[in-house]
Amino acid sequence: MREANHRKLMSNSFNKLHEQLSVVRSHVEAMEDPVARKLLESMEFGLLAPMRKLRVHLDIPYDWHEQKAETMECSR
């Protein structure tokens, strides 16, 4: 598999992780539990910061589809 394919698959996986964290956050907020909210924030910081560093290191755009569209428009 080409490196670009790996990057695209990782980008999609990162996006899915982010979406699922948003779902968990909405449920925690609905519960109105301050301890759960603090624990969730800790979990998010522990996951999202290293994930962003990995994206930057591997030059993976935040939204692969937007990046591809911009590239195609520039090449016209």
Q: SSE order in H/E notation?
A: HHH
For the record, the count of structural domains works out to 1
Helix content: over 70%
User: In one word, what is the shape?
Assistant: elongated
**Largest sheet report:** none
Please compute the radius of gyration using only Cα atoms: 16 Å
Strand content: under 5%
Instruction: Please give the alpha-carbon distance between the first and last residues.
Output: 28 Å
Number of helices: 3
Low-confidence stretches: none
Average pLDDT: 86
Total count of strands: 0
Q: Helices and strands: which structural class?
A: mainly alpha
Topology, pairings included?
Layout: H1 3-31, H2 34-58, H3 64-74
Notable traits:
single chain, 76 residues, mainly alpha, 3 helices
Describe the structure.
This protein is an all-alpha fold. It has one domain (3-74). The protein has helices spanning 3-31, 34-58, 64-74. Helix 1 (3-31) runs antiparallel to helix 2. The two termini are 28 Å apart.
Structure summary:
By secondary structure, the chain is an all-alpha fold.
